[in-house]
Design brief:
It contains 4 helices and 2 strands. With 104 residues, it is mainly α. It has one domain. Strands 1-2 form a two-stranded antiparallel ribbon. A hairpin with a 4-residue loop joins strand 1 (7-9) and strand 2 (14-16). The chain starts with 6 loop residues before the first strand and ends with a helix.
């Protein structure tokens, strides 16, 4: 289930990872899922992408390192898909389009 998008644009020094958890859909997929834990981890992803100090030492890393940490393969509650490269002129607009296409 897609719950967010990580978008990194090196040339514009842009990194964002907005998330959205469709709780009803999540419960249909797994009625016993710990929804609070899932939403907590999604919030962590977004905070690390923004570089907010409250999200710990990983959030304090340089932007490229935070991106690589976010997209690193893992087998935990939140796992990212393969990285897809592309070009965009407006990362905010591109991010909104990707969220609507892949998440909502």
């Amino acid at each position: 289930m897609n719950a967010g998008v990580v978008l990194y644009c090196r040339t514009k020094r842009f990194l964002a990872a907005p998330t959205y958890c469709d709780i009803q859909r999540l419960r249909m997929l797994d009625p016993h899922c710990d929804v609070a834990s899932v939403t907590e981890h999604l919030t962590l992803f977004s905070g690390i992408a923004r570089g907010e100090q409250a999200f710990g030492p990983i959030a304090q890393l340089p932007i490229a390192d935070r991106f690589h940490w976010l997209v690193a393969p893992r087998s935990t509650i939140i796992a990212t898909s393969a990285v897809h490269c592309g070009v965009c002129h407006d990362p905010v607009e591109t991010l909104q389009a990707l969220m609507h296409k892949l998440v909502y």
